[in-house]
Amino acid sequence: MQLRFLLLCSALSLAGCHLNEPIIDAGAKQPPVGGTVAGIVTTTDRLVAVSGRKVTVLETKTGSHYETTTAGNGGYTIKVPEGTYRIDVELKSGETLVKRPEDTHVGNGDLDPHRDFTIGVTR
Fold this sequence. Notes:
mainly beta, Immunoglobulin-like, 5-stranded mixed beta sheet, 4-stranded antiparallel beta sheet, 9 strands
């Protein structure tokens, strides 16, 4: 399934026109392309909303970080350069992390799904 998705994405990107993109000197150093990290944030109490939670992706060697927020269903996706990343989610008062993804290595063109979190809620 993942291979089929990647092939579809490749075909769609080849079909697109990029008329307004700058022309880059082939001899110039290109930034690393990277890939996409994705997951879902849930809670142990289904009544606690997880939309709009900040997700931070920190490159473990350089300290570069990237941020996004969760959608209404708790899902998130973020494009990052190649590297190894620690992923964190914003917690609110009375919450603890029950499940967090391990550090994630992102290679060129990778799609790293299922980087899910579960937040424990105490009332």
